[in-house]
Structures are given as structure tokens and as C-alpha cells.
Amino acid sequence: MNDFVRDKLTEWGLLEWIETFEEEGVDEESFYSLEDQEIAELIPKVGPRSRFKKRLKLLKKEQNTANPDTADAPAQVIPSPSGTSNEGKRKSDLQGESNQQQSPTKKKRLAKGPGAYSEEIIQADVENIMRCVLKKIPDQGNNLNDFLRRKIHDLKTDKREVVGVFGQTGAGKSSLINAVIGLKKFLPSGSISACTSVSIKVEANMQNSNYEAIIEFITKEEWRDELWFSINFRLEDEEDDSEYRDIDEKLSALYGEDWKEKSDLMDAKYFKEIPEFLLSKEKILTTDKAKDLPEKLIRYTRTKQDNAEDKGTKRWYWPLVKCVTIKVPNADLLKHVTLVDLPGSGDSNKSRDKIWKTVVGSCSTIWIVADINRAASDKEAWDILKDACSYMGNGGQCNQIHFICTKSDPHSDADDTSKAGIRDFILKRNQQAKAKVKQEFNQLNEVKKHFSNESFEHSFKIFTVSSVEFLNPKHLNKEQTEIPKLQEFLQELNDCHRETLNYVSGARGILSLIQGASHRGGSEIKKDVCTILEEKMTDELEKVHKQMEETYQAFEKCLSAGVEKSESHCERALESVINPRKPGGGFHKTLRCLVEHNGIQNAGRKKNKKKKKQINLNMALSSYLTESIDEKFKETFPNEVNCGPFNGKLNSFSLDTKRMKMNPEYKDVELQLEFLNAEEIKMKKKLVKIIRERKKTIYSSLMTTVEESMQKCYDDAKGIRGKHSLNNMRETMRKHVHDSKNIMFKNARKVMLNQLRELRVCNIL
């Protein structure tokens, strides 16, 4: 190995891999020719490998362009904040001050030229410059100074993408996450998702080098309400009732199997080990070793099981947990990405249910995880997708669905047991599994309708992965395990380039405004430019408002048709829920649970442990309304990254400052135009984000309004007891729906239209 390779690895903070590169005989020529598989073998850890690949890519690009002027790029992109005419002095003043805060090591690295400038270094340098600028802004309060301070503080944003991970226990989610983040035994099998109600987030620890788990509990009041319902739900034939089995499992975990014999279950003695619950605080578990955290966390995330590791555990606290956030140090792939292990559906507890809906709605990507041997026929996996589609599609921001078939490495059925034969057997089965899964997905019209036809092929992807082969290759190379594809996807989600670009362009705009404000004269041209820009803004806003008005009218027409259909079919929809053709034994308990939880009977488990489908009467009653607007809603508020709301009219809004800046006539206001251009880009992104959040509320308003209209009905049905209670509850609900149907659905339409109207009249446009 020559000095070039050694210097590069040292420069990039990869000293520990120098010996490996030397043993493999990597010289300068082969360094530039390294393929992904070779890099994976040289650097098996995900974090360092990702850094190496990114810097190698940048190095190759700089070698190809061979442009020596780019060596000064980070300094040249920043306009001077000074009002003097000495450009060289202005630049050296800022850089000199910022360099005083840099270590000698960093100075040396920056002096090496283009290869030293990764995006992180560029952003760090610009941040340093902006800190210096902030210090130089006078303390005297005036509008301009306050404005500049606010703009500088607003430059730094924490962009975070959420990936929701669904899959039943045993599907291999823990092993998948371990392999993706590069920790072999961090989450042991069954350490997550063994409990059906807790959402678990996994993200990078950016503060320190510890492994942390932040546990958030439900409130005491919520637990008291759950206890009241649980105790009052103890009816006859308890052992045959799935709802009761869930209750018994929950209370037995916390209080012991003799919980029925205990009084005052809110007594503080039951919560001595978790005082945070009584104090409404978070509990934080910390360790410096990855393997130690799951052992501490197990009681908060999983149901009681007959595992040797569980012996001696008296209390299990997962019934009290709302969500858990696990923070992993040195997890570069999770710097701006959060993986969330999610239950398959909402929960009877309001806090957990709200978190479930919020998290699903915030996911830009959904991973459905299933064992490859039953992926296409895994009813529970497909039911999860169908149950969540409205929350992640029109009611959310999901633009990618990945179906991940796990455990692709077993090969006991292979005829040819040679290494090549086993590899061919695994790869052939993988292709067959992908074909079957895609065929199954093509039949899910209720899911597909939330994605545009043009983007469907890009939105739905299938992966066949082997965590075992990835961590310990025997028959497949790492690329064939397809784990690197998922890692590459997460790396793209991190999108550091966009973060750096946004920060640098924003900083450039602010510094342009500072420099431009110091220039005297040119008052006439400034007035002319202001007039041009005001007229342009009026014209551009009119285009947006016109599109919004057309959209409003289209929704008004769709909703009117939806109201008419709802009024005609709502009683049929009601009967399908409260009087199904095959109700099964103990349906009066199911109906009572439904009214106790305001129209929702959450998924429990049958005797055979298979999951029951959630029953949602509010969704059934509002379904004709949502179906009437689904297509128009998808078109108006697309989730696809490159599409904008209102048929792209907001994205196409432009004051044309970039073109004006190129005109010599406006040279005296060139810097102000630079600032306005940067602000326009930033403002449009902010508006798109605001509208994206508003559209979730707008879409859910139909079901929310129907639920509010049904509340009196649920309250009345809750009080019904004794003989014929099932029929009496049914009659109460039938009468309420019949009497209110001419008002309930019109009111839901009115609420949605009002919220659409508010998008135009409120301050965002």
C-alpha cells in the first residue's frame, strides 16, 4: 500500500482500517476501482463503510472534473457581510476569525484541497462563519438586526424521515434492524414486537456514545380508566373471550395472575420500581454496551414469556408504556432517519392510539416484514397494510412501500448442496417470492388507490433479505442478501447533500442581504424593482388562488355525491358492523367493547393467537364520504416527493428574481435579489410542509366528525345492561343513525370544506 491510500484513510478518520487495506494490497490505482462488494469486505461496519463510500465518490468526482478552482469553493460561495469594497480583506476577516476556532488538525485537512471537502466539512465551515456573523450584528434592537438574528437561527433544521416497520412477532424484524444498522446482537429476537401495543423508535444518539432507551408512560388517569373498563368487562365465559384474554394478560403482567383478588390497583406500592409513572416523567435507561440495553428494556416492551432469561422477573411494565425511543451511538444511517417498530393497528388506550396514528401518518416509507415462506399468503401482513393504508396514504405522507421477505437463507430443500447450488436455490426462490408478493399486491386496490399510477412502480418495492448471511456470509455475498440495498435506501433518506445545500444557500442569501443593505444609492431602481416584484407576486398568488378555488369546487361536488350515497347506505353499513352475518360467540361483548371505546373495537387475539381484525364503526359510516374524495384528494395533495400540492401551482410560484439578477439593469440590487431568491425557495418548502400537515387533519375530519355525531349514541349504549342488552344496544344505534343521517353527513362535508377554505384565507397564503 502506498502513502496515498494511507493518507486518505487517515484524512477520512478511518485509521483502524489501514492494516486491512495494506493486507489486501490496495494501492492508488485499485483504490479508485473498488466496487461495493469489495468495500463491504474491507470495511464490514456500516457507519465507516458509508463514510468511505461517500468520500470516495466525492474524490472520484473531483478527479474527473480536475478543476483546481473548486479548492476554494466553500469560501467562494459565501458573499461578504461587510460593506467595504476590499473583497479579499472581507473574506480573510471572516475566515481568519473562524479559523481561530479550528484545531490544527482541521486546518491541515482543509489545506489539502478539493478532496478534503466533504459536505459535512462545508456545512461546518459555513456554520462557523454564520456564528461569527451573528456575533458581529449590533445588540441595538432594530427591525433589521432582529430579522437577521432570527434568519440565522432558522438556518439549522432537523430534517427527519420516519420509516414504519410492521410485521407480526417472529417475522424477523429484530434481526433485520440489527443487520441494517450493523449491530449483530443488539436487539435479540423477540425483544421488540412481543408486545402488541408499544411503538418502539430506533434512531441515532447524536449527543453521546451511550446506548439509551427513553420510556414514555401513559398517564395515571388513562391507566385508571383502563382499570375501570377491565374490571367492568369481567363477564361470564371469560376464558372464551378474546377481549378478556387481552385484559387478563395485561393485568397479570403488571399485578400477577392473582390480580382479581387484589384491591386498589392504583396503590403506589405496585409502581415502586417506576416512580416516573406516578410523576408523569420519562424513564431513561443508559448503558455503554449494546448488549446490555435489551436486558434492561425487556420488562417495558414485551409480554411475559417462558424464556430462561425472564426467570425471576415479577412485574412487566409494558401495559403502562406509551412508546419507547432507543438511541444508538455512531449510527450514521439513522442520523436523519427514525425506524419505528409499530403494532399492526391502533390501541384501546387513547395515548397509544394517537401515537400510532400520528407515527403512521408521519412515515414517508413503510416496511412490511414477513417470513419468505409465507410472505404472499401471510394474511396478517396484508391486513396490516390494508388497515393502515388510509392513515399512511391520503391521511399521511407515505410515498414508498417496501415488502421485505425475511429469512431467505434456509436451503434444506435444495437438491444441489454445493455452495453454488445452494446459492442458486436461494436466489431462484427469492425471485419466485417476489413474483408472488407483487401479484398479491396488485389485487389490493384499496391500498393502490392512495398512490398515483405513474409512481406506483417506483412506490412499491420487494426485497428478499437474509440477516444471517449478511452478518456471516456462507452461500451469498453481501449484495445478494439485499441488506445493502436497504442501507443504501436509508442513506439516501439521510440526504445530507440537500441539508448542506439548504443551509449554504440560506446563509448566502442572508449575507447577500447584509452586504446589499450597506450599499447606498440606487433608490430609484430599488423602487422600480419593488413595484415589479409586487405586481409579480400579485399575479403568481392569483394563479395559486385560482387553482385552490377550482379545487374547492371539485371537492364540493365530490362531497355532495358522497353525502347522498352515505344517507342512502349508512344503515346498511351500520348493520354490517353491529349485526354481521357470522358474529361468532359472545358478540354482545364485542359490541359492548365497541361502544365503550367510541365506535372502535381494537384487534385482539383469538385462542389460536391469530390476530382479529379491528372493527371501526366510524370508519364504516364515513367510508362513502372518503371514497367520494379519495381520487381528487390524492391528485390535490400527492405524497410523491417531486409533486407539489394543488397541481404543482405552489411549486411553480416564482418572483423570477433569478432572471432579474442576471439583468445588468438591476446590478445595484443584485444582492437583495439573491436574498429574495433564497427566501422564496425556503418559504415554498415551508408552505409545502404546512399544507402536508394540514391535509392529514382535513382528510381525517370526515371520520372525526362522524364519530362526534355518534358520541351520544355510544354514551347511551354504554348504560344498557341486563337481559336483551345486545338487541337494545343495536336498536339504540339504529335509531340514532336513522334520526341523524340527514344532518351527520352534511355536517361532515361542511367541516371538510371549511378546512379547505381555511387553507386559502389563513396566513399561509
Secondary structure blueprint with pairings:
Elements: H1 3-11, H2 18-23, H3 28-32, H4 36-42, H5 46-65, H6 73-76, H7 87-99, H8 104-110, H9 119-136, H10 143-153, E1 161-166, H11 173-181, E2 199-205, E3 211-217, H12 220-232, H13 242-255, H14 275-278, E4 283-287, H15 292-301, E5 321-329, E6 337-341, H16 350-362, E7 363-371, H17 379-392, E8 400-406, H18 419-441, H19 445-448, H20 456-459, E9 460-464, H21 467-471, H22 483-494, H23 496-517, H24 523-578, H25 587-596, E10 600-601, E11 615-616, H26 617-636, H27 649-652, H28 657-661, H29 670-718, H30 725-761
Parallel strand pairs: 1-6, 1-7, 2-5, 7-8, 8-9
Antiparallel strand pairs: 2-6, 3-4, 3-5, 10-11
Tell me what the structure shows.
The model is unreliable at 66-117 and 235-240 (pLDDT under 50). α17 (379-392) links the parallel β7 and β8 (400-406). 56% of the residues lie in helices and 8% in strands. The protein is built from 30 helices and 11 strands. α24 packs antiparallel against α26 (617-636). By secondary structure, the protein is α/β, with parallel strands linked by helices. The strands form 2 sheets. A 9-stranded mixed beta sheet has the order 4-3-5-2-6-1-7-8-9, sandwiched between helices. It comes from Gasterosteus aculeatus aculeatus (three-spined stickleback). One of its GO terms (molecular function) is GTPase activity.
